[in-house]
Amino acid sequence: MAALGVVLAAAGACAVVPTSGSPRVAEEDNSRDTLSQPYVRMIATKPRPDATPVDIVKGFQAAMASFDDPSLAVARQYLDPSVEDKWDPWRQTTVYESKLPPEGVPVDELKDAKETTVTLRGTAVATIDAEGRYTPASGPVVQSFALARVGNQWRIDAPPDARLLSADDLKRDYRQVDLYYPPATSATGLVVDRVWVPINPSTGIPETLVRRLLAGPTKSIRDSVRSAFPSGTGLNQITVEGDTVVVDFTSEVESVADDRIDAMKAQLAWTLGDLVTGRTIEIRVDGEPFRGTGLRFSPRDTSQFDPNVLPAQPQAYYMQDGKLQRVKEKGGEAVGGAAGEQGTKFTSPAVSAESPPRVAALVGGEGVWVATTVVGSQWQRWIPGRKDTLTPPSWDRYGAVWSAEWYGGKQTRVWQAQEGQPHRVGLPADLETRRILALRVSRDGARVAMIVQEGRGESLEIGTIARIGQEAQIENVQKLDSRSNQDIVDIAWQDAASLLVLSQGKGGQELSTWSVMEGMEVPDAAIKLDAQAEIGSIVGAPPDYVLASADYDGEIRTYNVDKKAWVALAKDGATDPVYPLG
User: Fold this and answer.
1) Maximum CA pair distance of the chain?
2) For the segment 234-287, what is each residue's pLDDT rounded down to a tens digit?
3) Which of 39, 80, 235, 463 has its C-alpha lying 20 to 30 A from 56's C-alpha?
């Protein structure tokens, strides 16, 4: 695609070339074909003759940001030939704030020198590992480069096995994407795995996504999923024929088991996402129809694999007068069965996603009980224990109820129960000795979010769930947020990848949204609360539904995204807002 202009990069070692239209900053153009969205390209330029050590390091830094050069061949020209092939820039990417000004010995002092050092100093933003996992970072970046004369030219002879990119480079050259994999169980569904991938202009975004999907899930979720694509499957190309996106794989794809074809289609459709909206997808094998007869489908046909489980307009519930109420257009109505009656006192209800749904709750002081929402149903105890030692229940998409128990005042036990049969969940040793104050299973059933007591404070931690049959293990527990000056009041899953966090500090309450796989707060996503809001609990549902209970006046509120304001949904002693799962 011809470029209409070229703007020289400030570093002097790259040219910025828009892939379409006039020169501009990188931004999506929704009026164009979604398979060929424009973005700014950074074209690396080789070292200038007689470049100073500072110029060499600046040029190398700029050339590392060029993804028109996928092998970074131009960046390697800034290195001593003896280390060109040893340099491994793919091991890690360090992201820093806008500039890393170089510091080196003045040129007039290098006339007879054979070696020198140039140092870059700045502030860290994040790191991205070889799998594309993003981890926030802070503190100084101090990177020294040793240079030596090669003939009459300065070259870097000790490069770090990493790339250094500015935050602007990251926005231009990387995409935050969600990959999708079926769970390791036989259940229908998909699990989200969020990564950052570098865009290669020679292949484009769709091919980049599918090749990364075929490379497999990240370590953090690997024990929880199993790709439907047969091992060794490769991608030949992606083309567009009319309204059909043709994805051409290598022959290994034909060995997929018949009962895994639907899951394979879902992986492909959900990973391509908006890029294939309104189109048909066709899978081919080395240019020929799949298994001789062809395989064409609409992305809409894979909706049953939705990792968020819930419909577009999920049903909301709340407690009032000791009964669980279903939100209606005007007011509410009690659900059927024991949860809709006043006979037995219960608290902290959770609702499953099945039809008809079931309700789990803390009943009396005798554990977690479950009742269906069918008229005449009764409570059945699924997890024994005392109310003051168990966390409020949380449903997963497989029909199991979860709760954490503080046992004997010194040990944490986590339970999952299905059809009245509780099973102990395996925990990392350090988690067994800390009290879990709240536990919520993600909608895709692959993660847990936990508020954990930590000395005098609290921490927000995320773990992945590995499953074998009915047994489960919480692994890869990572701290998402530690609050030294705020209490964490409540947590709730917004969708399979995002968590709502309600906290209380000296300045009042705050409701923020966190990307759990990146370990960072989502910018500009916070819902503003009145400093004296006194919100007691929250629940969320995709894409942006939020309910909150106002403890001081017995009111349930819903957040209007368009008006950016809270609206009363139920009053007169309404408490405990609920969306299914999460």
Assistant:
1) 94
2) 999 999 999 999 999 999 999 999 999 999 999 999 999 999 999 999 999 999
3) 39
Specify burial of residue 469 (Cβ count, 10 A radius: 0-12, 13-18, 19+): exposed
Contact 349, 338 (CB under 8 A): no
List pLDDT tens digits, range 522-534: 887 667 776 667 8
List own/partner pairs for 535-538 with CB under 8 A and 24 or more apart.
535/489, 535/490, 535/502, 535/509, 535/511, 536/489, 536/490, 536/575, 537/489, 537/490, 537/502, 537/575, 537/576, 537/577, 538/490, 538/491, 538/492, 538/500, 538/502, 538/511, 538/577
Residue 411: strand, helix, or coil: strand
Strand partners, 180: 192
Token representation of residue 29:
């153009």
Beta carbons within 8 Å of 83's beta carbon, 6+ residues apart = 156, 157, 158, 159
Q: How far apart are CA 248 and CA 236, in angstroms?
A: 5
- The full DSSP string for 103-145 is EE--GGG-TT-SEEEEEEEEEEEEEEETT--EEE--SEEEEEE
Q: DSSP state, 292?
A: G
Strand extents, DSSP E, 268-373: 280-285, 288-289, 295-297, 317-320, 323-327, 332-334, 346-351, 358-363, 368-372
Q: Tokens 């490769």 map to which residue? A: 234
Dihedral sign for Cα atoms in the order 244, 249, 255, 261? negative
Contacts for 240 with CB less than 8 Å, ≥ 6 apart: 33, 35, 246
Helix 205-215, helix 261-272: angle, nearest 10: 140
pLDDT of residue 17: 32
* Number of separate helices (H) and strands (E) present in the chain: 6, 41
What is the C-alpha separation between 24 and 39, in angstroms, rounded? 9
β pairing state of 244-249 and 280-285? parallel
Domain 45-174, classified CATH 3.10.450, yes or no: yes
Per CATH, the number for 325-578 is 2.130.10.120
Element (H, E) at 197: strand 191-198
Q: How high is the pLDDT of residue 71?
A: 85
Contact in structure between 90 and 117 (CB atoms under 8 Å) = no
Q: Which residues of the chain have pLDDT under 70?
A: 1-42, 482-485, 525-526, 530-532, 552, 582
Domain positions in the chain are 45-174, 194-305, 325-578
CA distance 75 to 83: 12
